[in-house]
């Protein structure tokens, strides 16, 4: 009887943990939609900033940059919250004591901020905004505090974690159905990665070299933010691939 009771309790705990994980994944997905909307707004602000700079409205550009940085802070907070919720969902285990979920999420938020997981992306988004404004009148010239070689290194950086699908070898910008792991954030072609996961029978380690994460089919999906980031990367690639036109000013000597 005791064994039966223990088994029932274990099954109930397992179901509770599974429900919590599902709920956390749903919240994270919804949060990704908000992040996508913020990214769209930042793209619009960048376009407005470029337009204002072309009109030499410097003061308005400065004010817009301040607003952009505030929106960027909201974006970072939202990204940290999403990571915290996902972490709590993965770690949650039922206990006899009442769970303080607010404290759990606050603790995970603090850990995320200490690890500065979103800092590189935030810095890159701010730099892209400033670079777009700078290039209106100073295209090809390094921004204040930069060296000439920094232009190529920073202007071609993407917020995507990997540039090609590790299985198909296709560039991420050319994938038919791109999907991303919620755990390691690597991107793959959907049909290829799903077949890979199926073939590994639950031991599908991420195929990206040195990535230790195990892939789970229902946690590899096309989040709302993915297409926006791919479009941004595609746009950056087009800008950097423009050929340099060199005119020949030498005069024909008769």
From TrEMBL:
The lineage of its organism: Eukaryota, Viridiplantae, Streptophyta, Embryophyta, Tracheophyta. It is found in: Nucleus. One of its GO terms (biological process) is double-strand break repair via homologous recombination. Residues 147-235 form the SP-RING-type domain. InterPro entries: Nse2(Mms21) (IPR026846), Znf_MIZ (IPR004181), Znf_RING/FYVE/PHD (IPR013083). Pfam families: zf-Nse. One of its GO terms (molecular function) is zinc ion binding. Belongs to the NSE2 family. Pathway: Protein modification; protein sumoylation. This is SP-RING-type domain-containing protein. One of its GO terms (cellular component) is nucleus. Keywords: Metal-binding, Nucleus, Transferase, Ubl conjugation pathway, Zinc, Zinc-finger.
